[in-house]
Amino acid sequence: MTTSPLLVERADHIETWTLNLPDSRNPISDPAIVDALCDRVAAVNADHDVRAVVLTGAGSAFSAGGNVKDMVDKAGMFGGSPYELRNGYRGGIQRIPRALYHCEVPVVAAVNGPAVGAGCDLAVMCDLRVASTKAWFAESFVQLGIIPGDGGAWLLTKAIGPARAAEMALTGDRVKAEQAAAWGLVNEVVEPENLLEAAHALAARVAKNPPHAVRMAKKLLRESQHQSLESLLELSAAMQALAHHTADHREALAAFGEKRAGEYTGR
What is this protein's function (predicted)? Predict the structure, then answer.
């Protein structure tokens, strides 16, 4: 019986994605998990019933990143000539940051345990992060004589600034959950038994809002990373014009005036 590498559940407009390779600590370099994550992002982008996602790992680890056994054996994406390796990264694990960057709904990482190498980067690809007290983060590529091949140098710098990103990437040292919170790498640290509840509570705070507005707000946050202020203002004006003409905007105004929770349909 084949087990899916990614388990998907849905409740109250929130999907939960669970990396489901616990025996190998949830690596994300194998084609099956790359395909599963990318396919799920595409499905969510097309399904406006989904308003937020929680991403976590089965077992004791969030994600060990690349499959080190395959590196040793020079198998899969880690085998072949330099040309083949380059294309292996581009057509393999690098599809994940591209997909999550363009995921239209906010993604909350529920980091249940170690997030190592590309697993650390996977957490940073998410918009928000809740960590268990048992979690730790390591941008540990240099300790294996390689570099962040999945965009980690860009992702970490955006998340915690150049000095902290340099410290993580150049030492490869572990950063415990409490330190990660102090650095702004995670939003909240909770006890392990409270992790999924806390992550879903954060996702629910997002999902209760008009979904079109949330998707557009996330898009603006992404665009702000590389656009000028003038360009972003133009895009904001165009998106705002769309937002003002949604039924959910009218419902939000009515709910505000009547001092009640809004009921949003995504229209």
Answer: Could possibly oxidize fatty acids using specific components.
In angstroms, rounded to a whole number, what is the distance separating the alpha carbons of residues 175 and 136? 6
DSSP string, 92-124: TTTHHHHHHHT-SS-EEEEE-S-EETHHHHHHH
Tokens of 112: 């249940």
Distance CA 168, CA 61 (A): 19
Single-letter amino acid code for the residue at 132: S
Contact 15, 178 (CB under 8 A): no
pLDDT in tens, 160-213: 999 999 999 999 999 999 999 999 999 999 999 999 999 999 999 999 999 999
Rg (CA), the chain: 19
Residue carrying structure tokens 């990482």: 109
Alpha-carbon span 11 to 129, nearest angstrom:
20
- Given a contact cutoff of 8 angstroms between Cβ atoms, the answer to whether 248 and 262 are in contact is yes
What distance in Å separates the CA atoms of residue 243 and residue 220, rounded to the nearest whole number?
13
> pLDDT digits over 80-131, tens only?
999 999 999 999 999 999 999 999 999 999 999 999 999 999 999 999 999 9
Distance CA 189, CA 55 (A): 16
The answer to whether the pTM exceeds 0.85 is yes
Helix, strand counts (H, E) of the chain: 12, 9
